[in-house]
């Protein structure tokens, strides 16, 4: 049995097992990471789409209310052709009623054909007279004067008042203009929209943005005055997403408002030239996922290190066990004096080759060798010289054999040689070569030079041999014949 090969096979099995385990472990981690990330992203898409729908509806209601006020004012002016809306107390009370209903978040005014805006308020004695302001050069007023009288047009936010309040202006041309009054204008306080948006947005880095269809930023929560009126038409939203669909979900690699990677839900309001965008920062979306991923990765790494350490320790133990087993095998099969096969192992190989030869009808030759007058070497030169003689004999015989041949010590000065697939005439040639090689051995000792010879009996297995014992007996008989004939010779026994 090849214990070294078995040990290496066991080590490979351990390594393969650990590799498969770690592959499964990290494949599971990767699968969890990808699937959980996909679930988070899908959940984020649903949330942003719902939020965008809700924000769109809130914004639509706010501007729809503006449209109602403007339409009501236009209808009043149409129904009262003789009244001057700039000073008529009935119209002023109507406007004041509008303001109170919205807690002054929406203001209504009138403008002349050239864009002079007249504040509407019931005159109070002692109050300063407010001069009209001009909006004739603004885009929304020009669009209103040249557009459909049933629609109002939205402008970029402006600041007004002592506190610099931001307002979104709108203008609508009168159906029946009066002398000096050609349009109704309104101003929507930005804070009214920002309050709604700030309550809804995803914190900490999410945002809700209201854009005019041409890309002008009207409102953003969190509020940043530097962005008001800025055009985003060159951003990724307008370049990639809006040309494909007016409502959807996508990822901005770099947000135009804060340069952050964000996921957005967006939609164009069908009845107003407005676009709402609800966003969540990718960092915020995956913050919890990253923390979980870090914990799982650390756990997997710890398990991996433990598995590798266990595999390293186990392979070392297996290697040591293989070495110990090989040593035991060597001790169990080897003659310690000469380093060749011992009697037990030699006989087991002989039984194996005998059975194989009978199965495949292959010739098998056996030699039994004996050192001549070995007792005289021990008695005359000492046991050390006898031991040296045994070792030298084994070396000389080995050099005369093939790699497939087997040399073993049967006991004392008696040896055996097994020659598989070898006929007796070929074995006789090998035996003669060994005899000559042994006769040339000279061992120098303090008591002189030790020389010795060997007697060899050669036999071949026969088809009618019932067992190995018959072959052994035939080879022993040949050896005894060699000794009886004067030693230092080869005798072949065929029957």
Put simply, the count of helices is: 12
What's the overall average pLDDT, rounded?
90
Helix/sheet category: alpha+beta
CA(first)-CA(last) distance = 34 Å
Poorly predicted spans: 122-131
**Estimated share of beta-strand residues:** 15-25%
Per DSSP E runs of 2 or more residues, the count of β-strands stands at: 19
Main CATH class of the domain at 343-493: Alpha Beta
CATH architecture of the domain at 343-493: 2-Layer Sandwich
Radius of gyration from CA coordinates = 54 Å
Shape: rod-shaped
* Main sheet summary: 7 strands, antiparallel
Q: Could you tell me the CATH topology label of the domain at 343-493.
A: Alpha-Beta Plaits
Helix content: 40-55%
CATH homologous superfamily heading of the domain at 343-493 = Reverse transcriptase/Diguanylate cyclase domain
Describe the protein:
- It is a single chain.
- By secondary structure, the chain is of the alpha+beta class.
- The chain contains twelve helices and 19 strands.
- Strands 1, 2, 3, 4, 5, 6 and 7 form a seven-stranded antiparallel beta sheet that branches. Strands 9-8-12-11-10 form a five-stranded antiparallel beta sheet.
- α1 (3-79) packs antiparallel against α4 (190-200) and α1 runs antiparallel to α7 (287-333).
- The two termini are 34 Å apart.
